[in-house]
Each structure stands twice: as structure tokens, then as C-alpha cells.
Amino acid sequence: MNDMTPIQTTLKDWETDQEVRWCPGCGDYAILKAVQRTLPQLGADPANTVFISGIGCSSRFPYYMESYGFHTIHGRAPAVATGVKLANPDLDIWLVTGDGDGLSIGGNHLMHVLRRNVNMQIMLFNNEIYGLTKGQYSPTSREGTKSPSTPLGSYDHPARPAAFALGSGARFVGRGFDVSKNLPDVLKAAHAHQGAAFIEIFQNCIVYNKDVFNDFAAPKGAEDRQLWLENGEPMLFAGGTRGIALDRDRLELKVVDVVDGDWQAAEVLVHDATNRSIAHMLVEMPFGPFPMALGVLYDDPRPTFETAVIEERARASEGKTADLAKLLGKGQTWTVPGTAQDPIGTRTPDQGGDPQMRGRP
């Protein structure tokens, strides 16, 4: 069992000697630094930490983290990560995927790691495009996106990663974006959660989908377009002059004005991170009429998959002694004696196993 005692590290302890190779200006650089700054604050141990990725620009991440890592195959990182966690539940697993890797070929695997609630942090970098394969539209690309595979504009209705996670049974759903100063806080909350913690990170693809998130991520006027959620605090934005309330007739969210700071009179909702119904409404809020909901949208832990597996193993092995030789010799076996003239030998059946099979070659 690994020692989980927090240790002291610095950002430098998490940097590798590998040249970081993303396009100049890519949002992945900011996410990498956010993670490398966050891990020392968590007391994380590089010898106990594993980064596992699939295929895509984001999936180069393990090369740049001074820890253990696996760069796996397209869409299958959740399956590999589940295996690693079951083999050694003490390891701290970070799964790195993208909107293409995680929601197209990997959608099935991502769904199952979420519904099983395997204890790991899942960072999905969403740039709404396939960057590594030169700019084709992805499952999250907006309607009308022009790309090499949709030269006249995409007709597809985009997938919403956070809504997908909630629908798959995730017990933690967070959101941030690459250059946000609040992203480390979301990562810390995800790490504190016991179970599968899903974080959607909006990431600017400087080459193939430049500034697509500027409508809410651009610094100028950001407070009017971003709703940073904090458990137990009112859902306010625009400097506290506007808020999110519940339309009780239609059972949907609405934007309300807050006069003289009296958010209670405006019936602004107080964020309850354990309220799954409100979380579903928050991830589905259409941007424009509403701000972009960011931070920890949902956080309601339940027992983890690997804990149940360990308990089941303990029950199954109670009172039993491990004996590999006995296991291998169980059932029908064959003795193959060899001689100098016949090194392979003649198969002779041992007594045991299925009587009808004895003596058959």
C-alpha cells in the first residue's frame, strides 16, 4: 500500500525534461500550468500519481507531468484508468481527454467510468474541434461550424459534456476554462471528491477554432457573462446586479435584476451543489440569455466502485488460502512424459476431471 501522507513539492517537481509541443498560444499550456501549480497545494506525491490519456492534442499531457503516465489508444483511457485503479486503489488517477477522444469513439467508455463512480479526476478539454487531425468538426462543435469535414457548416446539434456527465450518473461535475484564475479551485474540489469527478475545461484552439469562447471567456466584460458558482452562496453575476432565480410556474431558470443588493427580494437561488435537478438546469442554460455557469455545478458523493470491488474480494476470499498450483491442477489435467527418443512424449490422462474425457487426445 502506498503512503498517502501529503508531501511538499513545487511546480518544478512536476515539470519533465520533455519539450512541451503544442501550437504557440494553445490553451493547453495554461491548463498544464494550472495542474502543475495545483498538485503541490494538494500535497500530491509524484510517485503516487498517474496521468492517463487517450489520443488528441490534450492527450500529450502525461509526457509533461513528472509522474507515472499512460498515453493509451483513442477513447479507451477510461478503461485503462479503471484497470489501474482496481490494480492499485491507492494511486491518484488523473484522466485527460478531449471532446473528440472522450465523446465520440470514447463516449461509451466515458459513460461507464462515470456511472461506476471510479475514484479519479477526469479533465475533458473542450475546444469544439478536432485539433490534432487538422480541424474537422467534433461532437461539441456548434451548429454552422465550417471545417474540412463540414465545408458548408455543421448540421449537428452539439453534445454538452457536462450534461452528458450528469446523464451518465456522475456525482461531481465542474466547469472552468484554460486561462481562468479560478480553474485551480475547481481542480482542488474535484480532487477532494471521492468518486469520479468530471471537469469540463473550455480550451482555446488557436489554429482551428480561435477565440470561439470569447463570448464568455474574454477578460473584458467577463463578470457580465460568467456565473461562478459557490456552494451556499447566491447565484449572482454582473457585479451582483443580476442573478439566477427559479420560474416556479414553468419550472425553469430565469435571469432577474437585483436592486440595491437585495438578492433575497429578487428570489435569487442559493447554490446547493447536492441539488441534481438544479445542476441539470445550470448545464443546459443557453448562453446569451444566460451567463455561462462555471465552478462546481454538482458535488454529491456516494460509495466508489473500487471500494465495492475490494469489499467483494475480501468476502470471497474469507477463510480461503491462495494456492496457485492447486488452481492450475484443478479439473482435467494431462501428464506428458518425454524420453530421448520421444522428447514430446505421449499424452496420458490423469484421473480426475470429466470421466467422459479421460483418455481422449
Number of strands: 13
**CATH level 4 superfamily of the largest domain:** Thiamin diphosphate (ThDP)-binding fold, Pyr/PP domains
Based on the coordinates given, report the CATH architecture of the largest domain.
3-Layer(aba) Sandwich
Order of neighbouring strands in the sheet with most strands: 2-1-3-4-6-5-11-7
Sequence of secondary-structure elements? HEEHEHHEHEHEHEEEEHEHHEE
- Rough outline: globular
Query: What is the total number of structural domains?
Result: 2
The CATH topology name of the largest domain reads Rossmann fold
Main beta-sheet strand count, sense and barrel state: 8 strands, mixed
**The CATH class of the largest domain:** Alpha Beta
If you average the pLDDT, what whole number results? 92
Radius of gyration: 26 Å
**Which ranges are low-confidence, i.e. pLDDT below 50, for 5 or more consecutive residues?**
357-361
Total DSSP helices? 10
Cα distance, first to last residue? 46 Å
In what range is the share of β-strand residues?
Answer: 15-25%
Structural class: alpha/beta
Helix content: 25-40%
